[in-house]
């Protein structure tokens, strides 16, 4: 299958330093770091799975909103210890193998230099730009954490969250209402399993466009079996393009997830949703500022944490070559 990808590259000015992170942190210690990550993301997107772009954005969000952007979500569970990967909220998180591929290549070029936490942030940026979204400078210098506990992931907002509940979580991480609505726009390249919205279909939710409801009923069926859990795109219009069409969709009651649709209905958020639905540039600018700020949540810098040689394990457990 051949296809053409048109990527609009826009450069936005962002602070050169944020929460002790800095743009170009690896310019001397590993000058090819960002290019290596970008190439891994591009190859996976072009030749393996175009939907992975949304998965990488979700991975970044799920990492930052638990203990902070410290790559705790990447740790594999063991017989003796669970990890964030065991949390129910992370059962369908994807993109781990891409981070691992990038890390393996980086370890060959710059051993013990580039953190897994930074790889996640860079991969998310590349996922945005490769799907037509804005390219933005990513402040780096994060270090990897020592703790990964599934109970910590309970804070993550779910697909059935209300706007007020989701906002409580965002504000607890220092994010504003506007930034929450903006970051939800990442759903423009995301998809969800039927299990995340099947309850909306059972009662013929009046807040969902009837034609979309019928389409999703045909897709999902009536069974809640794990063997009948297909996926559908959250932006039914331009599913592989990072744009503002997600907002237009929810304005027209075509939000797949309950929380998405509520953004267009709640009095506190519907005004911003309407603005983003008609002003693509405003959304792009807001998204860059919001995701860069999100990427600074709870970061470890300086002598804190470590630089893992394998993203799925702490260094003191690594007894063989990566």
UniProtKB/TrEMBL annotation:
Residues 1-19 form the signal peptide. Ca(2+) 2 binds at residues 188, 235, 238, 243. Disulfide bonds join 30-110, 64-69, 116-311, 194-220. GO terms for biological process: hydrogen peroxide catabolic process; response to oxidative stress. The active site is at residue 62. This is Peroxidase. Residues 20-315 form the Plant heme peroxidase family profile domain. Heme b binds at residue 187. It comes from Arachis duranensis. The lineage of its organism: Eukaryota, Viridiplantae, Streptophyta, Embryophyta, Tracheophyta. Gene3D superfamilies: 1.10.520.10, Peroxidase, domain 2 (1.10.420.10). Pfam families: peroxidase. It is found in: Secreted. Ca(2+) 1 binds at residues 63, 66, 68, 70, 72, 84. Keywords: Calcium, Disulfide bond, Heme, Hydrogen peroxide, Iron, Metal-binding, Oxidoreductase, Peroxidase, Secreted, Signal.
